[in-house]
Amino acid sequence: MDNSSNYAGVYFGEKPPKSKKGEIRRTRGQILTDLQAYAQIHNGDTLTVSAWHLLELTKDISRARTHFLTLTLRRTASSNPRTLYSLVDAEVLPFSMLEAVYANRASLSDLTPVSPRAMLDQDEAERKREGALGSVMVVSIELPKGDNRPPRDALTLVSVHIIQPLGLFKVHKDKLSTIPTLPKEFYIQCLKNSLDGGVYAMKFHPFTPF
User: Fold this and answer.
1) How would DSSP label each residue in 140-159?
2) Residue ranges of the domains in the chain?
3) Fewer beta carbons below 10 Å: N end or C end of the chain?
């Protein structure tokens, strides 16, 4: 497989696609840059809270060691990091699946070996020294236009991901533990609204920076 950041194919084993006249295809490097910008702006609120809810960590925080959250995303026309992507779907998957996907795989950015478990362990150890409860892994995947495959399939078939270990803090646990558990669909809608530029809520309200 060609791991070049200038390569426009996004599926494992895909031959270089032929662009139609006037068509501009996104390269792996462009996708990775956009995913990193989106993650930087959403890690501390949207993605962390979504992981707490969808993995049900207030009931059993040890699930952060055995499961992870995968999001499939669609690139929007926006240039604002907060609205670079709209949500396609979200799914909680076993950590063993992530380890299998990244076995013998190198990072797109610097071609070093990638070990999701080692990343999670290192992040968790560092955060616990700072008083955190632990860490949880979130994987984000950009799907090309027209591709609506489930997250579990995208994880194994789409070659450009970002994997982010996020800190789990007592302040989140204490606050979220007071809220009754709601159906998954509720949290998915909150996540969707947040990625669309709103606050993390069931009804859309524009996000206002502090």
Assistant:
1) EEEPPTT----HHHHHHHB-
2) 28-195
3) C
Residue 16, both tokens:
């270089």
Q: What is the distance between the alpha carbons of residues 114 and 163, in angstroms, rounded to a whole number?
A: 10
Give me the residue label for tokens 């669609």.
Answer: 74
**pTM for this one?**
0.88
For residue 161, give the H/E element and its range. strand 161-168
Q: Tokens representing 64?
A: 């952060």
Q: C-alpha distances in angstroms, 24 versus 4, 10, 32, 36?
A: 17, 14, 17, 21
Given a contact cutoff of 8 angstroms between Cβ atoms, the answer to whether 156 and 41 are in contact is no
Q: Give the single-character DSSP code of 14.
A: P
User: pLDDT for 59-91, tens place per residue?
Assistant: 999 999 999 999 999 999 999 999 999 999 999
Start-to-end CA span in the chain (Å): 44
For residue 176, which amino acid is it? L
